[in-house]
Amino acid sequence: MAKKQLVQVKINGRTREAMVEPRLLLVHFIRESLQLTGTHIGCDTSNCGACTVLLNGKAVKSCTMFAVQADGGELLTVEGLMQDGQFHPLQEGFKQEHGLQCGFCTPGMLLSAYALLQQNSNPTDQQIRWGISGNLCRCTGYQNIVKAVQFAARKLGEGKSVAQGGSK
Amino acid sequence: MIPPSFEYFRPATISEAVSLLQQHGDEAKILSGGQSLIPMMKLRLARPGFLIDINRISGLSYIEEEGGFLKIGGLTREAELEASSLLHSRYTIILDTASVIADPQVRNLATIGGNLAHGDPANDHGATMLALGAQIVATGAKGQRIIRIEDFFVSLFTTALTHDEILTEIRIPVPPPKSGGAYFKLERKVGDFATVAVAAQITLDGGGACQKAGIGMTNVGATPLKAKKAEDFLRGKKLDAANINHSAQLAADESQPSPDLRGPAEYKKGLVKELAKRALSSALQRAGS
Amino acid sequence: MQKTTPEVGGMGHSLKRKEDPRFLQGKGNYVDDVNLPGMVYGQLVRSPYAHARLKSVNTQNAKKLPGVLAITTGADLEKAGLSWMPTLSGDKQMVLATGKVLFQAQEVAFVVAEDRYTAADAAELVEVEYEELPALVDPHKSLDPKSPILREDRTEKSNHIFHWEVGNKQSTEKTFSGAPVKAKVDAIFQRCHPAPLETCGCVADFNQATSKLTIWMTSQAPHAHRTLFALVGGIPENNIRVISPDIGGGFGNKVPIYPGYVCAVVASLTLGVPVKWIETRSENLQSTGFARDYHMTAEIAADKSGKMRALRVKTLADHGAFNAAAQPTKFPAGLFSICTGSYDFADSFCEVDGVYTNKAPGGIAYRCSFRVTEAAYLIERAVDVLAAELKMDPVELRRKNFIPPAAFPYKSPLGWTYDSGDYDAAMKKALDMVGYDALRKEQAEKRKKGELMGIGVASFTEIVGAGPAHTFDIAGIKMFDSAEIRIHPTGKGICRMGTKSQGQGHETTYAQIVAQELGIPAADISVEEGDTDTAPYGLGTYASRSTPVSGAATAMAARKIREKAKKIAAFLLEASEEDLEWEPGKFYVKGAPAKSKTIQEIAFAAYTNIPPGMEAGLEAVDYYDPPNLTFPFGTYICVVDIDKGTGEIKVRRFVAVDDCGNIINPMIVEGQIHGGLTEGLAIAFMQLIDYDENGNIQGGTFMDYLLPTAVETPVWETDKTCTPSPHHPFGAKGIGESPNVGSPPAFVNAVVDALSHLGVRHIDMPVTPWKVWKILNEKGLTG
Question: How wide is the angle at C-alpha C597 spanned by C-alphas C593 and C603, nearest 5°?
Fold first, then answer.
């Protein structure tokens, strides 16, 4: 066994650390070392996206990365989406538009959608479909997920225009 | 799935990385984006004893024109290629290519250098770089050397890089005016490797005839393939339907596909022809014929 | 049925789901999230060969690895009499191999270590010596005398598992011999896999102090699994608690018991610590319950006007190395005899032979009521072939032969009594939605220009909701199901069921049934499933049986509560029961609506002011045995465009009109349809668990077993008709599987239709671009 190394990350705003083997996958670090089990594992081959988290603002598949690579980085997982006890508009959208069924792909799907909306605040349906194309869902057929992301885009847009209005 | 154990290094400079490579020989592997290497390690098809993570080395990620070349740093991510306004305005063929690699999350990590250095005939940049006549900058103990892309792909998963060299830059000659290129890929679904893909880059002369053509093919041989006969045929000819068709047929003849779950060899040759036609037609349009 | 207010949220309200908040915060509790003190990890060692004699299993080196706690082999289990276990089809299956391995990825040894990384390393160090034997891959060769006999454990020295037939062979033959028109199709419903996004796994925790075994497992049928563990393992059933926590999709994959569960239980019994075993994706695809693999021939005899007279079906069923199909005992081919579909045949005959091959065991009901998917595909393909034979529009042919509404309840020639149906209503709605006539015109014009588009129609009939108990059982346990409702003093309550949701939204829909029956807001009713220590016994969730059976039990239990509530109300109102009227949420005195008691007031009285002589409390249990199955149906229409250069198929439109009777939650029903259609799309165009000639699995990862992304998935256009089930307490039918049953033929019919003028009559699934291209190339039509 290779020597363990210290990995420190800021995850959902909190600094956490653990000693890990270099081969420890980031997803196992998150789920087992840090006990945040919202991030899931659905395949071995980087196809399903259930393990998607944001690392330094970018959506990545945490099963295809070693924890040591994330050392010093900033992570956002599904557990960090709520703000002040309120659902993020994406969480609200998924609920209102029935964008989830078994819930297993949902955390990864939310994080991919989060990254997409940061890049493109007003996506078309087709852009949403491409934006979540690294995430497999076996239950919903994606149609309501697309609606859920549109819901969030609208809600975030309203928030922005209110904020802009307020600053004038 | 669980990767085997390894020792991990995170050098801060290229020279440090190169000396680690020299120290550990064949057992060492460069960890760039990791999007091919890590799945192979999880499947235990790759088991490097030493992993040298170059992601924290600064100055390896850039897209710029300089000295008659488009220069792309080896650590440039696919997502950065996709977002590059320079590529959007002048190198749409590279944009075509980067945007059909794997999926958004993978493209956030995967690098153009890793894509080429992995030597996988199914990887997409190889064909495009063959079409563009790129050069590979390899950095080793003795400094840098330039490898022509035609000489870069040696055999399945093997490139001209020696074990202590790192692919640090890709150089593409800035195409003259009236040039255009396109990459057409057929995949079974988003995220799949190409069933077949074809890259075509052309330059027209003053009379509208083809002055230069580059055609590369993905996943139809042990390495990315250059369709030399198809390229040669077009030189000096009008890119009309008949000539495009004939060139595409030559490319299909030059391809060496194997049957697999994506289809029989006959089908893949048919696809080379079809996608070559589409890529050439699109290249012609982009060249502003 | 009286509609409740949105606040109450009974039947017909699109209530937002109660389970969503925890999933949306990453607070679901799936098996791999269970983390117990002292927990250790198991990993299976699997065979690289499809057929081989096991010479030796050497665990010495693996045991030396620090952190390894135990390694179990088939020989070890044999000593304990546990090396084989029964399947759900009356066959048996090896837990860990002894003697021979019979499929690639078969379980050979089980390694337990302190963490999963060490377990993976140790599994690699287990040295197994094999003597490779010729593999039997093609089911058509299973009965060839030259083929090896796979199962040496059986007394019958043959690879034949069963022959099953139903219908009237003689009269069918007679009709065929005189028929002026015949159509025939050979169609393979390929081997595919449910591939839920969460793989299978468990945590087995044997507490040596209390002798209690708790198993958290990915189980669609926790109660039945508890009984099987008790029967096979000899553990008293009261000392076993199976907990099926949140399930990340099941689709039939989580109905069987797999060797990994058994190994984890044995390891925990031996070591006295909790043992976690979680499959990798490859293990899931390569070794757990596959579906279909039916090699079918259908023939239809008809007269020249297109009136269909008789159907003859012959099928070879590939079950792999062990017959591990999960299906009712009396039905070795499940409900395949629903293959007469939506059509009125006078005569029919259907026969199925099951065989062994060197492939993974199974034949499970993947999002399907026991082989109805294969049946619907076959008849809907055969009808299209007949239409081409007759040069008749496939819609016209279907409409001419539909069982008419007046014929229900309809007795089919193969023995089923269809409860209700109005097939033409669904067809008509679908035709209007898609604009069928205009599409046919467009197609004709396109053909003139050499462009290829196709329109595929399928009018399927489903058969879901097993029991009745006199006919249906799983491993001897009758297929009833249950509900237990307890109303608390403050008028809120809890409902516990014998079923188990895997994403279907049971926590919401069962609460809505209670809301409908008792007028208590659905928000005030908790729903719990999956814990065998607390929930009433049931057979679980698969084959679209939750709403037809447990949903019915919920309504019946609620009605028992309402009966008692009426007595309490009469006491409180000092009125006679006969003078009371019910409206959702309260009893009032006839003619004096102000004199009333709400259900909440009555609930409080049930604990605080009980009528003399009455038992306290307000609760009821119901074990519901359905009098018949329910028969949902629908018409699906698919429009495709084909790229001649590449063979790519683009689904331009897909219209789905479903009829599942009365609907509990329209939003959830629509979601089920979207999901089922998407799985149907994958089966029709992408998915195949294939093997090479040596029995090496092809498509054992998500790199080659393809799940569509949002990009490949079209926009689904859905609508409904409503023909309530006459025998179900609130007129509902199952819905989860209809879209997966009805869509494959619609997709394939569309592609074949696009090529029908070229003489194409059938293409086997998955209909890939290369298959289409090959046809076009042979006709000289590719660029």
Answer: 160
Per CB-CB distance under 8 Å, the chain A contacts of B191 are 47, 133-134
At B145 the three-state DSSP class reads strand
Gap between the Cα atoms of C138 and B23, Å rounded: 52
CA angle B276-B279-B282, nearest 5°?
145
- Dist CA C217 CA C110 (whole Å): 18
Question: Residue range C69-87: average pLDDT?
Answer: 96
Taking Cα atoms as reference points, which of A94, A157, A79 lies closest to residue A123?
A157
Give the residue from chain A lying closest to C671, CA to CA.
A140
Which of B3, B51, B105 lies closest to A61 in CB terms?
B105
Task: Please tell me the distance from the alpha carbon of residue C468 to that of residue C779, in angstroms, as a whole number.
Answer: 52
Other chains touching B, judged by 3 or more CB pairs under 8 Å: A, C
Contact C768 B263 (CB under 8 A): yes
Q: Best of C23, C198, C281 to disrupt the A interface by mutation (most A CBs within 10 Å)?
A: C23
Rounded alpha-carbon distances, angstroms, from residue C66 to C60, C117, C275: 12, 12, 18
- C387, containing H or E segment: helix C372-390
Known catalytic residue: C220? yes
* Residue C726 in this model has a pLDDT that exceeds 80: yes
Q: Do C120 and B189 touch (CB under 8 A)?
A: no
DSSP per position, B156-183: TTEES--TT-EEEEEEEEPPPSSEEEEE
Question: Which of A21, A69, A134 is opposite residue B106, by nearest beta carbon?
Answer: A134
CB B229 within 8 A of CB B250: yes
Closest C-alpha to C98, from C127, C42, C56: C56
How would residue A167 be classed by pLDDT, with cut points 50, 70 and 90? Answer: very low
Q: Is C737 a catalytic residue?
A: yes
Structure tokens at B116: 């080429």
Reported as a pLDDT band with limits 50, 70 and 90, residue A163 is: low
Each residue's pLDDT expressed in tens, for chain B with a length of 289 residues? 999 999 999 999 999 999 999 999 999 999 999 999 999 999 999 999 999 999 999 999 999 999 999 999 999 999 999 999 999 999 999 999 999 999 999 999 999 999 999 999 999 999 999 999 999 999 999 999 999 999 999 999 999 999 999 999 999 999 999 999 999 999 999 999 999 999 999 999 999 999 999 999 999 999 999 999 999 999 999 999 999 999 999 999 999 999 999 999 999 999 999 999 999 999 999 998 5
The mean pLDDT value for C464-475 works out to 92
Chains B and C: how many Cβ contacts under 8 Å? 65
Report chain A residues touching chain B, CB-CB < 8 A: 1-3, 5, 21-23, 25, 44-47, 49, 52, 58-61, 63-66, 68-69, 112, 115-116, 130-131, 133-134
First to last CA, chain A: 60
What tens digit of pLDDT does each residue of C624-662 get? 999 999 999 999 999 999 999 999 999 999 999 999 999
C28 to chain A: closest CA residue: A38
Q: Give residues with Cβ within 8 angstroms of C306, minimum separation 6.
A: C386, C387, C390, C392, C396, C397, C400, C401
C367 catalytic per annotation: yes
Q: Which residue has the higher pLDDT, A117 or A160?
A: A117
Q: C426 and C657 in contact (C-beta within 8 Å)?
A: yes
Residue type for position C478: K
For an interface test with B, the pick among C121, C283, C773 (most B C-beta atoms closer than 10 Å) comes out as C773
Cross-chain residue pair C690–B2, CB shorter than 8 Å? no
Category of C173 on φ-ψ map: left (φ > 0), alpha (ψ -120 to 50) or beta? alpha
Is the distance from CB of A144 to CB of C675 less than 8 angstroms? no
Provide ipTM, 2 decimals: 0.97
Q: Is the pTM of this model over 0.80?
A: yes
